Amino acid sequence: MAKRRKEENNSSGQDSFLDIVGNIVGILIILVLVVGVRVKNAPVTLSIPDPRREAEEKTLREDLQTEAAIRSDVLQAAEKINTIQNSLVVQDTIRSNLATKKALLEKEIESRQKELGSQKQKEFRQGQKLTEANRQLALLQMALEQQEREKPKTEKVASYPTPISQTVHGNEIHLQLQGNCVAIVPMDEMIEVLKADFQEQLHRMQYQDEMTRRLGPLGGFRMQYVMERHVIPVDSARRPGRGGMYVRLKRFTLMPVAQQIGEPIDVALQKDSELLELLAKHHPGRTTVTVWTYPESFNAFRRLKERLFQLGYATAGRPLPEGIPIGASPDGSRSSAQ
Question: Using an 8 Å Cβ cutoff, are 225 and 255 in contact?
Answer without folding.
Answer: no
